[in-house]
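User: Earlier you gave me the apo prediction for this protein. Now I'd like the version with zinc ion bound, so I can compare the two side by side. Same sequence as before, with the ligand SMILES added.
Assistant: Got it. Here's the input I'm using:
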Amino acid sequence: MRLVSPANILSIVISLAVISLAAVGLGETSRRHKAADGNLWGLDRFRGGGLIRGPCARRACIALTFDDGPEHSTTPRVLDELDRRGVRATFFVVGRRFDGDGPIAERNREVLRDVWRRGHMVGNHTYTHPLMDRLDERSITREIERTDRVITETLGVRTFLFRAPYGAMQTPAARHAVYSRGLTPVFWAIDTRDWAAHSPEEVLANFRAGLDESPRGGVVLFHDTLPRTTQALPLVFDEIAARNEQRRTRGLPPYEFVGLDELWEPLRPSRAH
Ligand SMILES: [Zn+2]
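And here is the structure of the complex with zinc ion:
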């Protein structure tokens, strides 16, 4: 029987230390790589399901979300305004807008890459934007999987954030299709109803009314495909700044811009299906 000599033990310890250092080094490299891409979000944190209902639970917060893009004629203006304000948001994208060989799809793919490079989160908003509650589970799964594939092909990351078109996932088929894939559905607290508004001022008025109803704030729903929304955004930011001034004078905490991870509730096993 061979005994392990002290010299051998020393060499084993040194080897382990070298391996550990190498592992730390790799970690640093991958973090730097992500930073170079301009995005530090780990979308993996939402894997395994959960729920984001919308309201801010503990303090006053705002989490901006934009649905239905990417749209090359409007989304870049949203991105510029978010950069100007130093705010990161989440974009729920519709797969058919950026899938395939057409020139529009290619432009929209480039916009989506820009969304990610500028540090925003990306979520799945189905492939054709159907009312899922009217579909069987196979069709819903296909809608989700096609968009999952095209997001992964375009960005090289997989997302577990999901928003149902119209917020509708009432049927067992819809719920099972979403939760069995480990997705985290995201709802909202403030609906700006920008799709029905006729002007940027009306989008702002809807936002103000929403914030009056949900004074703690939470997830705000916009559509980055609408010119009136791109025009309303500066007004919305000014409104939040003005309200924060008022809140400070009244001794209330100001609204903070947060990512969806702040509002994430892990899924309890009993709700899994
Ligand atoms: Zn939508």
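For your comparison, keep in mind: The pocket of zinc ion is lined by residues 67-68, 125, 129, 165 (CB under 6 Å).
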